[in-house]
Design a protein that fits this description.
The protein is an alpha/beta fold and about 325 residues long. The protein folds into 3 domains: about 110 residues, 3-Layer(aba) Sandwich (Cobalt-precorrin-4 Transmethylase, domain 1), CATH 3.40.1010.20; about 100 residues, Rossmann fold, CATH 3.40.50; about 80 residues, 4-hydroxy-3-methylbut-2-enyl diphosphate reductase, catalytic domain (Cobalt-precorrin-4 Transmethylase, domain 1, 3-Layer(aba) Sandwich), CATH 3.40.1010. The chain is built from 13 helices and 12 strands. The strands form 3 sheets. Strands 10-9-11-1-12 form a 5-stranded parallel beta sheet, with helices on both faces. The protein has a 4-stranded parallel beta sheet with strand order 3-2-4-5, with helices on both faces. Helix 9 packs parallel to helix 10. The N terminus is likely disordered. Belongs to the IspH family. Its EC number is 1.17.7.4. Keywords: 4Fe-4S, Iron, Iron-sulfur, Isoprene biosynthesis, Metal-binding, Oxidoreductase.
Length: about 325
């Protein structure tokens, strides 16, 4: 590119959200698959996408990971590791793995495991459990699957919270999916608490630190830009919530994209400012790819907007730690 061509590129102010991208639970889950491949060699079977990101999944496939949706897709008698994804699984899944004599490794995010334990404790204490979350999401399936059928009531919206009829209004507890919208969840909880004042809350917020921090960063940036890009997969709950948060804060064009090739330059080809964030399962290399695509069309002036510092670390599953592997 000649200097003259470069000079003709319009300037674009880019506000880069921080924190963004990988959280500690995602790092742990990806590291678990890579460490298992390193120790045991391929194949390593993974039940469900280890995290909701096609780029990550394809990269692990290339190294020898085999992704399945159900355990019956795994050859009987295999001695290869079988890893459960970061989203968590119903109690029946590890029980089935044990019956099949699989070498199972649980890469469930510890913050999801916390929700599982909370739901189990409430049930043991005779409380009806209300789970605030999205039907069909793997995390919700896993949490509801910790308890007998009918023991958990799923509430997805404020309207459902207004209509919910518990078996015993004085004996309720609630938990939440870890990747929800902070604002939407607060509204649902407020409605339930007003209707059922005795409802028991989690000891500590169930929406995870990474979800909260990424939404707060987006909420800071979105009102100040013409458009917003959230890097993430369409089946990633936390990524979708980031896009919604940007829209709610008044950003006129907020979109979710997986790769630079998905950018609609009819929308993003004539803006003066852009916000960029990434869901908790989106690697930083994809953010860089997006920025490179804009740099080909604009002269970028990049500013990072920090709203929180993250230093959370989760150790690998016990079977994959150095002392256990030795």
């Amino acid at each position: 590119m000649t200097p003259e061509t470069s000079a003709r590129k319009p300037e674009l102010r880019v506000l880069l959200c921080a924190p963004r991208g990988f959280c500690a639970g995602v790092v742990r889950a990806i590291d678990a698959v890579e460490r298992a491949l390193e120790i045991y060699g391929p194949p390593v079977y993974v039940r469900h996408e280890i995290v909701h990101n096609k780029y990550v999944v394809e990269g692990l496939k290339a190294k020898g990971a085999v992704f399945v949706e159900e355990l019956d897709e795994i050859p009987a008698g295999t001695t290869a590791p079988v890893i459960f994804s970061a989203h968590g699984v119903a109690r029946a899944v590890p029980e089935d793995a044990a019956r099949r004599n699989f070498f199972a490794i649980d890469a469930t995010c510890p913050l999801v495991t916390k929700v599982h334990r909370e739901a189990t404790v409430h049930h043991k204490r005779g409380r009806e459990v209300v789970l605030i979350g999205h039907a069909g999401h793997p995390e919700v399936i896993g949490t509801m699957g910790q308890l007998p059928e009918g023991a958990v009531s799923l509430v997805e919206t404020a309207e459902q919270a207004r209509l919910f009829q518990p078996r015993d209004p004085g004996n309720l507890a609630f938990t939440t999916q870890t990747t929800l919208s902070i604002d939407d969840t607060a509204e649902i909880v407020a409605i339930l608490r007003e209707r059922f004042p005795a409802m028991v809350a989690p000891h500590k917020e169930d929406i995870c630190y990474a979800t909260t921090n990424r939404q707060e960063a987006v909420k800071r940036v979105a009102p100040a830009v013409d458009a917003m890009i959230v890097v993430g997969a369409p089946n990633s709950s936390n990524s979708q919530r980031l896009r919604e948060a940007a829209e709610r804060e008044g950003c006129r064009h907020a979109v979710l994209v997986q790769r630079a090739g998905e950018i609609d330059w009819g929308v993003f080809g004539a803006i003066a400012s852009l916000g960029v964030s990434a869901g908790a399962s989106a690697p930083e290399i994809l953010v860089e790819e997006i920025l490179d695509a804009f740099a080909a069309r604009y002269t970028l002036r990049v500013e990072t907007v920090h709203t929180a510092h993250e230093d959370v670390f989760f150790p690998l599953p016990r079977q994959l730690r150095s002392d256990a592997a030795e």
